[in-house]
Amino acid sequence: MMRTALLTAASAASLMLTGTPAAAQNAVNLYGIVDTGVEYLTNANARNGSLVRVPSQTASLPSRLGISGSEQLGDGLSAIYTLEAGFNLDNGASSQGTRLFGRQAWVGLKGSMGTLTIGRVYSMMFWAIVDADIVGPGIYGGVGSFDPYIPNARSDNAVSYRGVFGPVTVGGSYALGRDAAGTGNSPGQGTCAGATDNTHLACRQWSTMARYDRATYGVAAAYDEQRGGAGAAANLFNGAAPLALTNAQDKDIRMQLNGYVKMAPLKLGGGWLGRRVRTDSAAVTDVRTNLYYLTAAWQFQGPWTVDGGHYRMINREQNTRGDISTIRALYHLSKRTTTYVQAGYLRNSDSSRYTLSQGGAGATPNAGKNQLGLMLGVRHAF
Q1: 21 pLDDT higher than 80
Q2: Using an 8 Å Cβ cutoff, are 256 and 128 in contact?
Q3: Higher pLDDT, 20 or 115
Q4: Choosing a second label site near 109 at 20 to 30 A (CA), which of 90, 151, 308, 361?
Q5: For residues 28 and 71, what is the distance between their CA atoms, to the nearest angstrom?
Q6: Please, which pLDDT band fits residue 359 given cuts at 50, 70 and 90?
Q7: pLDDT in the model for residue 198
Q8: What is the pLDDT of residue 300?
């Protein structure tokens, strides 16, 4: 009976993604990025001193080691999987809360009607921003500095779907226990219980996305909602204490609208990221933040690329604001190896403790202190 049930489920998934079994062909790919450098950071501790270090966080792109593969099942249907580990080059430790495969760990099916995956997957917030925020998850990228969840938007225990239909891409995900290490959120499925009658919603998460992309421009929108539960919290990354989200009715909501334009050799991108933290407790004030950004990249003839951007964060309820300006020059030694120099400057309002360098030991300034960051690094992809 169990065998019959499994065969029925497999057949249903195959029909949904339009395919039938046929002769299998396997493909396995080993890939990775190693990326780091030496950083100088001002106002990096309680004494307002400077810091020179090899940062553990991302430099220009996060370091990783991955294995991906596929098996052709016939009629355009493939079985696919990815196991991807993040690590820090300063000491070799695993990233994403010391997980073995903290970046991605999923298996799924891919066909003409889209891709369905199950496991630890990216939220739709990540897929919506990858083209508009040109600086990306670099160490001085303002989106990652003001809200580290966005470039690390992953969900545990999740089912995810993405479909591409001409210029339109749609997607959605649902997590049964969202435990995304590093975002200050909640335990995963089986260990998270809400304090209300809505316990079936405790620690759940869902996200949706719609994109429209042409050869020279594109626009995207996304929505991400995380529910509270035992041990859950919402970190605003501004020096204020995280807001407890212990009730299943508590919500941490993120929304975004963005777009980009390509006018070779120039690319422009920009957008808005809104966050709404809503609690069921009268003792906790709801918080709204708005992050605006404009980024650009210029590809010179030859090996040089220069990119940068400006980011502004506004949090009226907690009276914290911040601005980050960043610029980076990349010299491509080959298709795989790149050296770069980058600079970023953070301006904090009087009560803000945002950090330019995406955290790490001794990197957070005192309230109202600005930060300058400089970094020289190298990246190799394989």
Answers
A1: no
A2: yes
A3: 115
A4: 151
A5: 9
A6: low
A7: 61
A8: 95
- 311-321: average pLDDT: 97
Among residues 150, 104, 96, the alpha carbon closest in space to that of 311 is found at 150
Confidence band for 223, pLDDT divided at 50, 70 and 90: very high
Q: Which residue has the tokens 């610029």?
A: 327
Q: Comparing 95-104, 124-133, 248-257, 284-293, which segment has the lowest mean pLDDT? A: 95-104
For the chain, the maximum distance between any two Cα atoms, rounded to a whole number of angstroms, is 67
